[in-house]
Amino acid sequence: MIDDLNENHLPVDLIDRYLAGECTPAEEASVRSWLKADAANRVTLELLNTADSDSAVRNIDVDAALQRALRGPAQTSAPRRRNNYWTGIGATLGAVVIALAGFQYLAPGKSDRDTPSGKTYSAKPGQRASIKLADGSQVTLAPGTTMRVSARTVDLSGEAVFAVVHSEGNPFIVRANGAVTQVLGTTFGVRAYAGDKSVRVAVAEGKVAVNSSVLVAGDAAIVSATGTSVQHEANIANIFAWTSGRLVFDKVKLRDAIPDMERWYGITITADEQLLDRPVVTAFQTETAAEAVRLLSITLGATSSIHGSRVTLTSN
Fold first, then answer.
1. Residues 236, 66 contacting (CB under 8 angstroms)
2. C-alpha–C-alpha distance, residues 189 and 183, integer Å
3. Which of 105, 266, 280, 302 is a plausible cystine mate for 125, CB 3.0–4.6 Å?
4. For the CA atoms of 189, 192, 196, 199, what is the dihedral angle to 10 degrees?
5. Rounded CA gap, 7 and 138, in Å?
6. Whole-angstrom Cα distance, residue 247 to residue 256?
7. What are the pLDDT digits (tens) for 244-281?
8. Edge-to-edge strand order for the sheet containing 302-307?
9. Rounded to whole angstroms, what are the CA distances from 204 to 34, 66, 149, 198, 220?
10. How many angstroms separate the CA atoms of 270 and 311, rounded?
């Protein structure tokens, strides 16, 4: 099994054995290599190590876990066994995901094309992409995202999380829909899909400047035509959840959730007008598109029909 592992995927039973202190030396080395490969992996381990029950998952201080995890690979002198809460959370919602099953996956990032102005990378609907830039900075692209890179300047359309390597006197700049984010070395995310009326910047670690506002760890800013608003102590874990394969909606109107669902699963959704303002409160993890649509329709109290990649939601 060890030979089949890569830096982005680990079997859940191997994580269980690691947390219980039951790994072989080779298995433990593989887990630690996986932890070093991506900050999102360390976040996932922190969440799993803290989650003793389904209530623990609901009450976990995920922001604190994120901060601890981003500081480096987990170090545990006495790993412990997690209770079997997978079924307690519910078969339809699963638990914190280590690897996605089938439909949506994390692909190694490759440049789509090189031009004099830089390299362009993209993640198609239904996949994420992991990219290591020339300066060593790490980028994870969300589904349906395009990024052009020239030295330490990035032009972004979509959503991405950046773990930026410090370079003295050489800031890392992300431009997205008129918002300019400048950093020296930190971990942050930017969301700016085509058609979005605003740009969101969230900081997991360090400090960034967004236009004229300065954000620190735990802050999220919304940049729009009317200015920049900053939320302190934002739910950073939910904002970054997509990097580890979780699509989380917390009281999001259906009209705002649909674009994310479409990019995540590579589908097209049409919904009755009376459904569009209903709140969506759920999380998708290993579900196929059909399973996710079924869960969404149950959440909304609606009826769904699927024809190929086209989905229709009808009010009951």
1. yes
2. 12
3. 266
4. 60
5. 13
6. 13
7. 888 899 889 999 999 999 999 999 999 999 999 999 98
8. 268-271, 310-315, 302-307
9. 20, 7, 22, 20, 9
10. 6
Q: Contact 76/87 with Cβ under 8 angstroms?
A: no
Show me where the domains of the chain are located: 2-89, 105-239, 246-315
pLDDT, tens digit, 9 for 90 and up, residues 207-230: 999 988 899 999 999 999 888 999
| Displacement of CA 159 from its chain's centroid (Å) | 9
CB 255 within 8 A of CB 197: no
Whether the Cβ atoms of residue 310 and residue 316 lie closer than 8 Å to each other: no
pLDDT at residue 35 in the model = 74
Which of the four CATH numbers 3.60.15.10, 3.30.9.10, 3.30.360.10, 3.55.50.30 does domain 246-315 have?
3.55.50.30
Q: Considering the entire predicted model, what is its pTM?
A: 0.60
Give every residue of the chain whose pLDDT is below 50, as ranges.
1-8, 50-106, 108
What is the 3-state secondary structure of the chain? CHHHCECCECCHHHHHHHHHCCCCHHHHHHHHHHHHHCHHHHHHHHHHHHCCCHHHHHHCCHHHHHHHHHCCCCCCCCCCCCCCCHHHHCCCCCCCCCCCCCCCEEEECCCCEEECCEEEEEECCCEEEEEECCCCCEEEECCCEEEEEECCEEEEEEEEEEECCCCCCCCEEEEECCEEEEECCCEEEEEECCCCCCEEEEEEECEEEECCEEEECCCEEEEECCEEEEECCCCHHHHHHHHHCCEEEEEEEHHHHHHHHHHHHCCEEEECHHHCCCEEEEEECCCCHHHHHHHHHHHHCEEEEEECCEEEEEEC
Structural tokens at position 284: 């998708």
Q: Backbone phi, then psi, for 240, in 5-degree steps?
A: -95, 0
